[in-house]
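Long-time lurker. I teach an intro course on protein structure, and each term I like to show students one example going from raw sequence to a predicted 3D structure in token notation. This year I'd like something fresh instead of my usual example. Would anyone be willing to generate the tokens for the chain below so I can use it in lecture? Attribution to the forum is fine with me.
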Amino acid sequence: MTDAAQPPAEPSWTDMANPTPPRQRRRGLLAGVAVAVLVVAALGIGAVLGQADSDEPAATSVAASPRSSCSAYSVDANTGAVVCKAPGAADVINQAPSPVPSSASPLRAPVILECRLGDDLLATSSLEVPTDAKGRPDFTEVWQVKPKKYSCDAGIIIPETPLEKAAHATSKYDDLDIGTLYTICAEVDPTDPYAETGFKASPEQIREINAALTLCSNHPLAGKWRKSVQRGKVDADLEAQGRIFGAGTFLVGKEIKAGTYVTTDVDGCYWERQNRNGIIDNNFITAARRVQVTIRSTDYAFHSERCGEWRPA
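-- Reply from a regular --
Happy to contribute to a lecture. Here you go:
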């Protein structure tokens, strides 16, 4: 009787054709990992060297920590990372440039004027005054239809552009509405009082005309307006000196200057020179084209009624 077949014995490590003990496999695995680490490190060094060769300043470190030797930091606008700040680098790097406003963008919406262009007082036309990129209103198209004096209405206009604010400051208006200035600039009428020959603007009118010229310096009547302003300034200076005055009683040497004065086109004019004791000279003129009087420096006061404006002879 033969013995039953025995199962083959388990092979030992020495009997195997390619013995590879478990410890040797682990070492091989560790060696592979070490090689991979060296490759990654080499790639990282190459990237740093490549970045150093670029023209743009870059952060010297990809991370900032309390143990870092960095003395200043930058923020990467793309990633939000805080990195060491390179010499000459900005506080925020990789930041997109700020958009530059378009030079064609106006500073305010066009101003709409309602103007009566015909004989019908109820019929109006809407005229547009655009504003260029520098804030200057353009009345060119409005001037082509030549609106008459007091025929346009601009409504209430609050100053928005620097030019409008400068015009308002010149006008010294009590409120912020410069609609009147837009109306003055829009209208082109030869009968405009400001454009009349010989017109002398009052101090208030001087301010208003200069304010309008701030908005529309090239107005068709600008030259005549400026002459009215100049004549008005001459009178304003004389009035401030006490050499132009009207009805009333004025102290000589304090409120008015001594000298020879004239007035024109009078009707029922009465004047008198006074000393401290009373009247020293007087006259009543029923009607005259021209009246002249000399006020002496020794006079105490001068009084007149219904004589109009006295001016230096």
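Some talking points for your students: The helical segments are 22-53, 140-145, 162-171, 179-186, 203-215, 222-240. The first helix runs from residue 22 to 53.
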